[in-house]
Write a structure and sequence with these properties.
This protein is mainly alpha-helical. The protein has one domain: c-terminal domain of poly(a) binding protein (Orthogonal Bundle). It contains 7 helices and no strands. α2 runs parallel beside α4. The radius of gyration is 20 Å and the shape is flat. The model has no long low-confidence stretch (mean pLDDT 81).
C-alpha cells in the first residue's frame, strides 16, 4: 500500500487522505510521539504540558504544526542530553516561553483567515476603513 517517494499515490490513497488527512503527517506525528516517549520523565511531563497548550493555542496546523513539534522534540532532547534544568529551559514565566516559541511559526491557514476577518470587521465597525463587499 505504501508508495515510493517518486511514485504517484493510488486513487485509494488519495481518497483516504481526503477523509483522514495526510498519511505522511500522521507518520511524522507518530515519530514525534515516539521521540517524546524516550525523554526522561521530568522532560516528558514538561513537553506534554507544552504540547497540550500548543494544541489549544498554537499557531500552526498540518505541516506547520509538525515542524513546530519536531523542533520541540529537538529542543527537549538536547536539553535532556545537556541536563538543562526545566526551570532554566522555561524561565520564570512558562507562558512567555511558549508565546516566544510559537512566534517562530506561521499561523495555520484557518486561524490566519479568521484573525484577518475579525480584525477587518472591528476596523469597519470602528469606522477605520470604508465598508467593502464580503471577500470571503
Amino acid at each position: 500500500m505504501a508508495t515510493g517517494s517518486n511514485e504517484p499515490k493510488s486513487r485509494y490513497l488519495q481518497y483516504l487522505e481526503i477523509a483522514t488527512g495526510s498519511l505522511e503527517e500522521k507518520k511524522r506525528y507518530r515519530q514525534y510521539k515516539a521521540r517524546i516517549k524516550q525523554l526522561p520523565e521530568n522532560y516528558r511531563i514538561a513537553v506534554e504540558a507544552l504540547e497540550r497548550y500548543l494544541m489549544h493555542f498554537g499557531p500552526a496546523d498540518g505541516a506547520g504544526a509538525m515542524a513546530m513539534y519536531e523542533d520541540l522534540a529537538d529542543l527537549f532532547e538536547q536539553s535532556a542530553a545537556d541536563a538543562t534544568p526545566i526551570r532554566d529551559l522555561f524561565g520564570d514565566d512558562p507562558i512567555e516561553f511558549v508565546e516566544t516559541f510559537m512566534a517562530n511559526y506561521p499561523l495555520g491557514q484557518y486561524r490566519a483567515r479568521e484573525r484577518n476577518r475579525f480584525t477587518s470587521a472591528i476596523a469597519r465597525a470602528a469606522g477605520d476603513t470604508p465598508p467593502q463587499g464580503r471577500t470571503e
